[in-house]
Known about the structure:
Number of strands: 11
Domain Tetrahydrofolate dehydrogenase/cyclohydrolase NAD(P)-binding: 138-278
Bound molecules: nicotinamide-adenine-dinucleotide
Order of helices and strands: EHEHEHEHHHEHEHEEEEHEH
Largest sheet: 6 strands, parallel
CATH topology of the largest domain: Rossmann fold
Keywords: Amino-acid biosynthesis, Histidine biosynthesis, Hydrolase, Methionine biosynthesis, Multifunctional enzyme, NADP, One-carbon metabolism, Oxidoreductase, Purine biosynthesis
Pathway: One-carbon metabolism; tetrahydrofolate interconversion
Distance between the termini: 53 Å
CATH architecture of the largest domain: 3-Layer(aba) Sandwich
GO molecular function, one term: methenyltetrahydrofolate cyclohydrolase activity
Number of helices: 10
Radius of gyration: 19 Å
Amino acid sequence: SAEVIYGKQLAEDLRQEMKQEVSELHKQNIFPKLVVIIIGEDPASKSYVKGKQKASEKIGMDSDLIELPEETSEEELLNLIDRFNQDRTVHGILVQLPLPEHIHEQKVIEAIDPSKDVDGFHPINVGKMLTGQDTFYPCTPFGILVMLKRAEIELEGKHVVIIGRSNLVGKPVGQLLLNENATVTHCHSRTKNLRDHTKRADIIIVAAGKPDLITGEDIKEGTVVIDVGVNRVDGQLTGDVEFESASEKASHITPVPKGVGPMTITMLLHNTIKAAKQIHNHQ
Ligand code: NAD
């Protein structure tokens, strides 16, 4: 049966390394700092931002959490972002999505200085990723790439089938793997005969948000299975893959929880440290 890839363990190892790097930077008078802005009271979003702040603190990195009421206007938010863009002590700015309906999400994303866009959502950074340049990569896709590399899974020439085409996960993870010379197929909700595609995958990345969408029946022997899904079923956290049946056929598989999830915040910390170093090198 499959080797289980624990993102949680890798995330802890990486964060330990980052903690040392932050303390080295402090000695050079560089104090990496992340600002997280959240609007409204969505419990899931609240718990995500708390996690981000706690993780920052744990590696000794400064972080500010700005909690704004649901009725905050778009203009107020844009002004605040502009203030942090100008603030030389701030290196990373993250606005937790989704935003309330009266705020134009794309406008907000584009207001963030690309050199502080640690989520990697600004079109300039997306374009850099598309053209194979070094930049801030979106955290979940980047975390998946790092996991695959650390597990020494070969990517070049491999057929990667991705289920999902969101701007957050599906599209960027495909791009990052294409940059690694994989052959990439994107499937989505309008794809016909999904199983015909998944059966041909060397690596399958499932990011659909549908519990048990993929089972052992859907994959061939020896497939690497990355489960990005986070679903709550009867109060339990579960992914998009039926773990039991899939792990009988897979060569490697990520669990939910303790798989991809912990890597996401880890790459946010990585991006913020990277931003701090770049900003200081340019001063
Ligand atoms: P999304 O809803 O924006 O996109 C889902 C994608 O899956 C769409 O492109 C859709 O076409 C496709 N899809 C849906 N049902 C399908 C089906 N039956 N067959 C084929 N394709 C189908 O979601 P998202 O933001 O991309 O997130 C996907 C999942 O990953 C969610 O469960 C989310 O909670 C999770 N997620 C996890 C992390 C993490 O850090 N672990 C981060 C982001 C998202």
